[in-house]
Design brief:
The protein is mostly helical and about 220 residues long. About 75% of the residues lie in helices and about 0% in strands.
């Protein structure tokens, strides 16, 4: 080794170190940017038709990774194939493009619930109501979450449903039925009867409300 190289060897080592460091940073950045695997179906259980749809969707995303419809379709297919966590990652990518999209939020709420993350599921449905207060499915899902999972919030159900009723009087039958079910469940029979009667005033053919009333009203001799 020449004297010049010996003298410059520490500088060379420092240079190599920084090159490696920069390379590692770039590699990690690329990994972060592409952490959602669009392509692999190795661990998915899909039919041949679903695989074909998957491949078509991947081609679309290779052309434009900011195609929200393609992202939603891919997430659905990953969900069908058994990769729930992968589906959630892709839905979240779609949500970045459409933060208030009811369908994406609804699918995320369902996926988080299936995964057992009930707080996240609640968050998605509450966001739907914030942006689209007439989306009655979100109210139903929240009632279900509060009834069976986040039980400490079950007492908030009447206020939640009254909020929905104010936003969408056209869905009164559904909201009254949910209120009747809630009050029956907590043992408030008077209010349960009141709301079931409201259901029947709107739709006398509602079999569920009629059956509930028959069971709740005292038998007359």
């Amino acid at each position: 080794m020449s004297e010049i190289i010996k003298k410059r060897w520490p500088l060379i080592l420092v240079g190599v170190f920084f090159i490696v460091l920069i390379g590692t940073f770039v590699w990690k950045s690329n990994i972060k940017e592409t952490e959602v695997d669009w392509v692999s179906t190795d661990k998915l259980t899909l039919t041949e038709t679903e695989k074909a749809k998957y491949e078509e969707t991947v081609v679309k995303l290779e052309q434009n990774q900011k195609d929200p419809e393609a992202l939603v379709n891919l997430a659905r297919l990953r969900n069908y194939g058994g990769d729930l966590e992968g589906a959630i990652k892709i839905y979240l990518e779609a949500l970045k493009l459409r933060p208030n999209d009811t369908l994406i939020l609804n699918n995320l709420g369902d996926a988080y619930y299936s995964l057992g993350d009930y707080k996240k599921s609640e968050e998605m449905y509450l966001k739907i109501i914030e942006n689209n207060p007439k989306w009655i499915s979100a109210y139903r899902e929240l009632v279900n979450i509060y009834h069976y999972k986040l039980k400490d919030k079950y007492t908030t159900v009447p206020a939640l449903l009254e909020r929905g009723l104010s936003a969408d009087p056209g869905s009164s039958e559904d909201f009254y039925a949910l209120l009747g079910i809630y009050y029956e469940d907590v043992g408030d029979i008077a209010n349960a009867i009141l709301y079931y009667e409201k259901v029947l005033a709107i739709n006398p053919q509602n079999i569920g409300a009629r059956s509930a009333l028959d069971a709740l009203r005292p038998v007359k001799f």
